[in-house]
Amino acid sequence: MWWAVLAAGLGCYLLKLAGLSVPARVLAHPVVARVADLIPVALLAALVAVQVLAAPDGGALALDARLAALALAALLLLLRAPFLVVVFGSAAFAALLRLL
Amino acid sequence: MSDTSRRAVVRDSLGVAIATGTYGLSFGAVGVSSGLDVAQTCVLSLLMFTGASQFALAGVVGAGGTPVAGALAALLLGTRNTLYGLRLAPLLGYRGWRRAVAAHVLIDESTAMAVARPDRDLARAGFWTTGVTIFVLWNLTTLLGAVAGEQLGDPRDLGLDAAVGAAFLALLWPRLTTATSRLVALLAAAVAAGAVPLTPAGVPVLVAAGVALLVGVLLPRREVAS
To answer: Which domain holds residue B67?
Structure first.
């Protein structure tokens, strides 16, 4: 685990440094720029789906309190709630549903 | 530039930085509930210092993915910082060691608080105020969240597994401004969910990155500005 933490940390730093260091024309190509813009959207959406739908032991989909908590998160975001309210509000909601 | 506008830039930047810096609390709690120890969680905040990538590594590993898959997801998300750097480089105008230090605090928020400024002085003021304040707060609150998270027992009883999904949604939300980005988000989520039963944990997220590639390459050019 440690090497993944260190390698990914170093890699993320080098990605930042690269942006400040390489000539801007590398990303002048419109398709490259568009793909680069869309990658965070695709990854974050995929992470939402996997985090909420994958069964805890992996390998299958499961519907449980996490989906209800995500719905609450979406509602809070629509209401422009701050990040911490969204995150811990959803956690509290999921915990509450599991108690019931 | 006058002192007044510089003071306004610093004040706005501090507001954004203080609000953002406290997210570290949720990253700390999520990190330890994903199976990282307190030290690993804190090193991620110190060394990687880019929130979405940190959450991605913790999320993938916490869902049973390999460390390699977690690191790859973190790196793919980190590519957007390269884009920010390209936009900021001419504005900040740093070389040598200043550039090396600036790169470390080059994140969503420091870019946002620098990029719209009319001149270099104000851009630098926004960049450093935001970047350094978030760095300090983010690392302090990560430690707090990680230590607290470790004391609190089973993360599922606290709903912390649901908190991770909510955190990713909150990070995604401001990016859903165009029809193209909403389409990509829906497709990527569907592809990832579909891949869960078919592939080892961690792989579905990486497969979904292919959606960005496909849509970016196939979409007609006029959609770019939508």
So the answer is: 3-175
